[in-house]
Design a protein that fits this description.
Blueprint (H helix, E strand, L loop, with lengths): L1 E7 L9 H9 L9 E6 L2 E7 L13 E3 L4 E9 L2 H10 L9 H12 L9 E9 L4 E6 L8 E4 L4 E4 L17 H10 L12 E3 L4 E6 L2 E6 L13 H19 L6 E4 L4 H13 L5 E7 L7 H10 L3 E7 L3 H11 L9 H12 L4 E3 L4 H5 L3 H13 L3 H11 L11 H9 L6 H9 L4 H7 L2 H9 L4 H9 L5 H11 L1 H15 L4 E3 L5 H9 L2 H4 E2 L2 E2 L1 H6 L6 H4 L10 H4 L5 H8 L2 H5 L5 H12 L6 H18 L13
Helix pairs in contact: 2-3, 4-16, 5-6, 5-20, 8-28, 9-19, 11-14, 11-18, 17-18, 18-19, 25-27
């Protein structure tokens, strides 16, 4: 697991300077604390920061060169089937000088060309320079676990694991992409393929980019299946699911450094820990964090699982240092990012890195197996659409009478969110369920050029495009496809990648093995969601693996008491930042509306924490990246 960067000046053919590559790598040093390397040859240059996980020797040093410079790679990731693939390649006559998966990727490209991607099982983002073909090959893994940004200028193309690396380029001056900011306000993250920086783009999951003969070609090499095809019974599905998960976990337990697992006490992380315990001859190291606020604290459940499997358990109770953490969090995440679960994830990553270098997690379980309440809500909403008109009109009239809740955890908040979308098309109903600010609120708070940028696109157009691309036969399946194309890669996987790599920790996700993804996609909705039961097939499969308290407990989510913090610890900072002259002069938001949200929330009249956190992270990002304030440009130190 590493940080990669590079340039190919295919337009000007200007030489790439090694000092530039080292500068880019320096800004990615947190992703690879174990070593640095650069390669440059005329108009091509690669940089690499190494987090050593497999083959800790110098033989695995990167950028890695093969065939006297015929092929060069800078690589970030893990290929879990690299040993089997290496044997296959040795059968073709390939020889290896290291025990690393990096060399296997390079040999696979040498053997198969672009088709090598079909043979790779894992998470990865890499660049290969093919000197013989004068071709640059950029790739991102199927699920989007590993990030890859790029920008094209008058000289050629620059790429990096994080866009902060581009700040090392003397000619680069970051500018705001207002269209991306408008999308951020809607989704709480900047969706791919755009970024918050004008002219900077993200390679999408399962995409590769080729530059040859002065032309850029981008293509998708894998698609998650949409139509169910599993022919077996529920019992057979349960058995096959556990087989697939065990195989995915077995490959992810290969490491030359200490390894453990995140343990929230939820179903997915508990399943991973339970299966790891079956595959290991020693206690699994597990890591959990909690909060003093009872509604956000899962430590008792994590302890229950840890005792059940006799793990070597470590936990930490979070007491936030608000003024120190949040500005640095904005620098760490590169773009505005308002998923507040980034905070506990970052605490968890720092705790875990003190003991191990690799940690498995349960990411992807909800997306694969219909684990979110919103999937059920969409089914109920569809049933509402088929009720007689008089009943629908009566429910809509009553919906307007539901008051706004004063606290986020209120059940009334969930009811209000559900009924607010009734009577609207399915995609808008879904959009209202998952977003921080609804279209009416954004139109009310925004002004000037930002409002104009927002009004150019329908708020939920990105969701609609993903929805209409889906070939799934029912609403839950189609919204599953939407999440795999948007929320999973652009929010959840960004959150975990940035939080873990900020501390040189590698996170591995067995549920996101592409064989597991394909198998879960083959199952009909009735096996994944039955009545009010979510993730039905998984819960049935692990009845004898886990304590019943874990199998049957409601989903809690990995949240923080942000609503409380904004009334206490963060109150003063929120007023100072959001109403400051600098924030007002940006011309983005109407000050009276922002001030009204602050007053309503801090005085306990309405819960506005999601809106306020969204605006706060945008302002902090501006100060770190656009204003260039040095005191914001450090990675967070939580403990």
């Amino acid at each position: 697991m590493c940080g990669i960067a590079g340039r190919y000046n295919y337009l000007s053919h200007a030489p790439v300077q090694p000092e530039l590559l080292r500068g880019m790598c320096e800004l990615l040093a947190h992703r690879g604390p174990d070593g640095e390397g650069v390669y440059h040859q005329k108009d091509v240059g690669f940089g690499h920061r190494r987090l050593a996980v497999l083959d800790l020797t110098e033989a695995a040093h990167q950028p890695m060169v093969r065939g006297n410079g015929a092929l060069v790679i800078t690589y970030n990731g893990e290929i879990y089937n690299f040993k089997e693939l290496r044997k296959t390649l040795e059968g073709f006559g390939h020889q290896f000088r290291s025990q690393s998966d990096t060399e296997v990727v390079l040999a696979a490209y040498e053997q198969y060309g672009v088709d090598c991607l079909r043979h790779l099982q894992g998470m990865f983002a890499f660049a290969i320079w093919d000197a013989g073909q004068r071709t640059l090959f950029l790739v991102r893994d199927r699920a989007g676990k590993k990030p890859l940004y790029y920008r094209v200028d008058r000289d050629g193309i620059a790429f990096a694991s994080e866009p902060k690396a581009f700040l090392a380029e003397p000619a680069y001056h970051p500018l705001v992409d207002l269209g991306a900011i408008a999308h951020y306000l809607t989704y709480q993250y900047v969706p791919a393929a755009e970024s918050a920086f004008h002219g900077v783009h993200k390679l999408l999951p399962a995409q590769y980019l080729l530059i040859k003969n002065g032309k850029i070609h981008v293509e998708r090499y894998w698609h998650r299946p949409s139509e169910p095809s599993f022919p077996g019974s529920l019992q057979e599905a349960q058995e096959e699911l556990l087989v697939k998960l065990k195989e995915a976990i077995r490959g992810r337990m290969i490491s030359d450094v200490p390894l453990g697992a995140f343990l929230s006490g939820g179903l997915d992380s508990s399943v991973i820990v339970g299966l790891m315990a079956q595959l290991s001859d020693r206690p699994i190291k597990t890591f959990s964090i909690g909060f003093e606020h009872h509604g956000y604290n899962e430590l008792p459940y994590a302890k229950l699982v840890a005792r059940y499997f006799s793990t070597d358990h470590h936990e930490y109770l979070v007491t936030p240092k608000a003024m120190e953490i949040f500005p640095r969090l904005a620098w760490s995440y590169n773009e505005p990012f308002a998923d507040s679960s980034a905070i506990p994830t970052s605490y968890l990553a720092q705790l875990t890195r003190k003991h191990v270098t690799v940690a498995l997690n349960g990411d992807g379980g909800d997306e694969n197996l219909l684990g979110y309440d919103r999937y059920r809500a969409m089914v109920l909403g569809d049933r509402f659409d088929h009720l007689p008109g008089a009943i629908r009109n009566g429910v809509n009239a009553l919906a307007g009478l539901i008051p706004e809740p004063t606290t986020f955890k209120s059940k009334l908040n969930r009811v209000r969110r559900f009924v607010s979308g009734l009577g609207e098309p399915a995609i808008r109903r879904y959009g209202r369920w998952i977003t921080h600010l609804d279209p009416e609120e954004i139109a009310r708070v925004c002004q000037g050029e930002l409002l104009a940028s927002y009004l150019k696109d329908e708020a939920f157009s990105l969701l609609g495009e993903a929805f209409h691309r889906s070939a799934a036969p029912d609403l839950p399946g189609r919204f599953q496809d939407v999440d795999f194309q948007t929320y999973l890669p652009d929010d959840l996987l960004v959150k975990v990648d940035i939080a873990t790599m900020a501390y040189g920790l590698e996170a591995r996700s067995p549920f996101l093995d592409h064989h597991v993804i394909e198998f879960c996609a083959s199952l009909p909705t009735a096996m994944k969601m039955r009545g009010s039961q979510k993730k039905y097939v998984l819960k049935q499969a692990v009845q004898s693996l886990l304590p019943q308290e874990i199998v049957n407990r409601p989903k809690m989510g990995f949240g923080v008491p942000m609503d409380h913090w904004l009334r206490t610890d963060l109150r003063e900072m929120a007023y100072d930042l959001l109403l400051s002259d600098r924030a007002v002069q940006r011309g983005y938001f109407r000050k009276p509306v922002v001030e009204g949200w602050l007053d309503e929330h801090t005085k306990g009249r309405r819960d506005r924490h999601e809106r306020l956190w969204n605006l706060l992270m945008l302002e902090l990002w501006h100060r770190a990246y656009i204003d260039g304030e040095k005191n914001y440009r450090t990675l967070p130190n939580f403990m």
